[in-house]
Amino acid sequence: MLEYVHDIHDPRLAPFAGMRDAQLRGDEGAGPGLFIGESDKVINRALDAGVWPSCLFMEEKWVEKTRPLIDRIDAVDPAVPALVASRRVFQAVTGYEVTRGAIASLVRPPLPRASELLGGANRVVVLEDVMNATNIGAIFRNAAALGIDAMLLTDRCHDPLYRRAARVSMGTVFQIPWTRVKTSEDALALLEQRGFATVAMALVPDALPLDDPRLAGHGKLAIVMGTEGDGLAEGTVDACDFAAVIPMAHGVDSLNVAAATAVAFWELRRR
Length: 271
Known about the structure:
Layout: E1 2-4, H1 21-25, E2 34-38, H2 40-48, E3 53-59, H3 63-76, E4 82-85, H4 87-94, E5 103-107, H5 114-117, E6 123-127, H6 133-145, E7 150-154, H7 163-168, E8 178-181, H8 184-193, E9 197-201, E10 208-209, H9 213-216, E11 221-225, H10 234-239, E12 242-245, H11 257-267
Parallel strand pairs: 1-4, 3-4, 6-7, 6-11, 7-8, 9-11, 9-12, 10-12
Antiparallel strand pairs: 2-5, 3-5
């Protein structure tokens, strides 16, 4: 339902007006949690995954470009407001100097159990304490492009539904099944029960080169990646079946974690 708004204090605009992540998630009160999706691509991919908006909000210059998205939402639930504002009002609410289309508040879906994600999966990723939203988004995009079936994120990883992470992922956070695990140890124990071999991407003396045939030859393989800088915890590396490194030139010892995942996912893909 298209509607122009002129009051920056309209309560429907509250999710877009500087609410903290904890408030959006619903950590500080009852009711369904929310997150913010930015751009038609991200919002459409959320809709494709069955994630539904509570409100759409855009600067008036984007109405015609956004019309197919507005119509798509309206056809299913005309009660979802599509709010339109002048540039001045939109900037006052969001703080955005530049806009590239609509933004939406979406209802956060419940996370599945980790065990539910592994049925039928052959290539799984475990992310340990990756706390940079841009890296999280890029890793999801790599995972979607390069054949990863599921992802397990430790509790300290950044939220994949955070607006920057989802935007960098180009909406692929809605295409790759994922969930939270408390620790890497919990993930590795579950993967062992399900028959996965595990490979830690780590700079350790006994690490295999990534193209070693002992790695990609496994039918079920989990790739374990650590945070930027510190990498994986020593105990996590020790608990994995293998450690692997990407061979480097010119004295470079490692890649950015998102770049490293692209190389690892490709080399360790199921053949």
